[in-house]
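Troubleshooting log. The previous run stalled partway through. Resubmitting the same two chains, unchanged.
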Amino acid sequence: MSGPSDFQPSNPALKWIERRLPIFGLVHSSFVAYPTPRNLNYWWTFGAILSMMLALQILTGVILAMHYTPHADLAFKSVELIVRDVNYGWLLRNMHACGASMFFFAVYIHMFRGLYYGSYKEPREVLWILGVIIYLLMMATGFMGYVLPWGQMSFWGATVITNLFSAVPYFGESIVTLLWGGYSVGNPTLNRFFSLHYLLPFVIAGVVVLHIWALHVAGQNNPAGVEAKTEKDTVPFTPYATIKDAFGVSCFLIFFAWFIFYMPNYLGDADNYIPANPGVTPAHIVPEWYYLPFYAILRSIPNKLAGVACMFGAIIVLAFLPWLDNARTRSSKYRPLAKQFFWIFVVVCILLGYLGSQPPEGIYVIAGRILTVCYFAYFLIVLPLLARIETPRPVPNSIADDVLAKSKGRAATAASVMFALAVAGGLFAGSTQNAKAEEGGDAPPAQSWSFSGPFGKYDRGSLQRGLKVYKEVCSACHGLNYIAFRNLADAGGPGYSEAQAAALAAEYKIKDGPNDQGEMFERPGRPADYFPAPFPNEQAARVANGGAAPPDLSLITKARSYKRGFPQFVFDFFTQYQEQGPDYVDAVLQGFEDKAPAGVTIPEGSYYNKYFPGHAIKMPKPLSDGQVTFDDGSPATVKQYAHDVTTFLMWAAEPRMEERKRIGMQVFFFLVIFAILMYFTKRKVWANAH
Amino acid sequence: MTTASSADHPTRRDFLFVATGAAAVVGAAATVWPLVAQMNPDAATIAAGAPIQVDLTPIAEGQDIKVFWRGKPIYISHRTKKQIQEAQSVPLSSLPDPQPDSARVKAGHDQWLVVIGICTHLGCIPIAHEGNYDGFFCPCHGSQYDSSGRIRQGPAPANLPVPPYAFLSDTKIQIG
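Second attempt completed without errors. Output:
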């Protein structure tokens, strides 16, 4: 475990280096010969998964930084261009953004595992505290990374979180100004966040080294919670732990790939596809899911300073865990009461997370307060008390005894796996039922889109008709800032040739210049130009539309969403439902009614729309039957127009979707085969150990 | 702890290990591909490299202009009779990179020299109308090019490259 290595390289070159820098010996003693308890279960694999995720986040992050521009005017566009134009940019961005979620998912399992098996207890207190420090650094890094795309949630999230520090007595306002580097969140804030977001992962990596160092001094804890005594209790790290971790990692990658390739926006907020606007706050400012429990605690306390203190306290309290719980028995496996309270605590955390996503009103506030009390009570009352009153069951004499006892308990494990699969299957089956039940109300009905599902493709005919509707109707008020004429000839698009795209571009007048005389001039569009906006600037757009600037449509199907709610979003995970945006846009286009129904009054200058939030929309009904004629004989109805133009806008929002799904299928196919191979290899290797 | 397979009898276990290892290698290679490919020019950059058109009417005899195409400076020289004469009369055997003047301009448009203004030595930008040969002089390391853009003296190994271009009319060219 520690002390001088007995590693003796035979290669003379390695010998030469080893005498001067014993790095091979270090690697050998830490990752090859290092004795691992032989009874570790798969909850222990999350340590390896976290190492991989940190490496992956740093790697993809360094690459994304090569294409990203940290400037308030350019950041949003640069992220969009990464996704649209950079080779595999969409993949790298999804890997990094979903990777952050996966990183937190893994770290929570890692932490709960530590909690359940008492991994924080003597002699692993420093190891645990280093872990809490890593977690805090991760939270800071994740938050600052979320700000970088400079969308609406980024901007307002940054405003809200930095304002937390205004709760500090006397110095609060000065601290906030210091964090912003200005009068409000702005370009200096974005710049320093980018710098720090790039720096902190390396700090995390440094603390991770200390974390692993401390782990290797104390030795790994294990499900039995007894220390390894004899050689029979342990196996060498390589190949046993290495191969087991590799199998765990490959299974985790399947889960990760599900998000990357099929539901990249499932965990994000649609508002972040709207460029940052310091003049409008989103209806609800919600952090990413992994901060929700702490956000719920913050909002539960009806006092600014106390709320902030409780939120930070909820994390800091973890650092004191080794002294709050001084029960002799380490693993909750042998602590009947602690086990029950542990699961109650898990449920409390999940419920706090749910409350964090809900508006802070009515029953949610009360529930939030009760659960906040429960959260702290677990650490401050339950654990110290349990250590005094609980009678633990006898622990096994050694790890080897535990392994022997476990081979009898296989049936129970199999039963619980079957149960989990049955629940998952039930959820899956239930989702189709539930989607149908939605159709009655004012929530936009789910449409059938050719592009949904893992094999979804855009309907070329629909894209071409949708472009026609956009050109003849929508483009009078809306632009498509992120779509270039050349994109019309891209693979996976409307299927035009390059010549057709160039001809279409030439129909447009593009403002260019200045020329040699220093004057602006107009010229015919070229394939490299972007669809021009109908108004020269936002102010002009406002004036022409009664005060409401029509949004750019490039991202509209990603920037719009409606609430799916619990349990719908659970089913959505299994059905890969990603079409709230298109469903919403399509519904709004069809939801206009000439007169507001009796009892509903809408403000002057707005129009009644069944599906628009609040039912009052500034845009008059844009489509009516017979407005646009299609060459291919498709019906000239509002329903058809809405469907086609929404398909086109979905393509405009994600021109690389077909590529994403195609590569996703290949990756899945590979990962499943690889995981199966890994499983059998692992079994063969471990067969030697029993 | 010891494996049961023997060297001359490959077992099913060996097959499994080799298959798993091979799959890992394939997976790693496939993962590296996008990580490297992202460094290539993106679609917007490639689109911005489309051909450009240049109007030659404002360029008087003896004058030259510099335009940019794909981030590179392109010299368009309206050569004088004297320059053309000099360029055509040089014996090819005296050139480090022998090329007749006729191969460097378009037939019937002798007066127009279009070259990429990047020194073939180490990439500096030569200055027009300087040096001993009525052509270009690179201030970095002293390479001298003649009125046909051919290397005459100095460390540069080759003539200034001629970009792909065509005359759309007598007064208009398209570069690219």
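Takeaways: The first strand of chain B starts at residue 52 and ends at 55. Residues 62 and 80 of chain B are 5 Å apart (CA to CA).
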